[in-house]
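User: For my dataset I need records formatted as: sequence, then structure tokens, nothing else. Please produce one.
Assistant:
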Amino acid sequence: MPALTVPPVDRWVPAPVTQENIDWANLTVVDLAKAKTPEGRDEQVRLARDATHRQGFFYVVNHGLDQETVDRMMDIAVLPFDKVDKEEKLRYEARIKQTGEYLGYKLPQYWHIANGVRDRIEHYNFPRDVSRREHPAVLRPFLPEIQKMIEFTHRDIMNEVQKLLSLGLELPENTLPDIHTYDETNHSFWRFMLYNPRPKEEEELTDNVWMKGHADHTSMTALWSQPVTALQIKDWDGQWRYVRHIDNALVINCGDTTEYISGGYYKSAVHRVIKPPQDQDGYRRLGLFYFMYTGDHVRLQPLLESPVLQREGITKVLEGEAPTQETWRKNRASTYGVAELKKSAETGIEYEIVNGVQVKHYN
């Protein structure tokens, strides 16, 4: 990323890495630097393909951003939570249910977790083009940096990942990047997200779950690895396992949109957030996220021209006319965490119906 003249900001001090004995998920590491040579590219295509097919989660390293840049973005990330008063936050509160978009604040206590306990999660969301809306005063000096981070993440990291996954489907490498264009049709968004610790009685009522198990409705989600150990994946064998922290790595997870356009070959990853281990008790979990969508006009239907899908068959498809990305993203966002869920015959699972699809929530 090109150098910018930047305003000063206080440093965010991250939690120390846990020293506890943890059941870690065995996730693949995709190295974008190695993908720059023909031999290395073949290997990274295979790694990205197999990881997304099997688990829907993998790390990306050597993506082009140095640790200093990521650390500074973390310094900025805490500002909308610690340096904005409640009155100003309310002025920028997202109208999620009404609009189907998260832009602005999602304030704590919006989502129901279990047994009457609501979340203690706060996030602030930026559109892909930050100039689309006004932001709290404390963030305005940092908007050029945030915009550069968004553009670099989309064009230089996520589109490189999408090229690998296109080749994994034995399609031209630009197949997926071409439907994830960085233009006005694309409503991908950037998020600063803060998980606040909870009192003991809420932990007991929710069995320590901070966010229920779910699959993202996006195409892909990128989150910068950070040391508070709380993210778990529902692994290939059905067990919940922790995602290990790797300095300056991105954790990429496949969302429902990619699962549908790959006909189920690429798996949408089920994940949740739970109370951190004892030696991280009381720490706040601050994160950087990029939620990537296709263009709004793209229909969520399988890429039938893929030789892989022709050989393997279609295992996941939406009934009837496939919705567009715009319809899917708005309907999923507007109902998440606030819809009345029904009990599934499967133990520990509730569900809602969105666009005729049974969307599962894992307790």
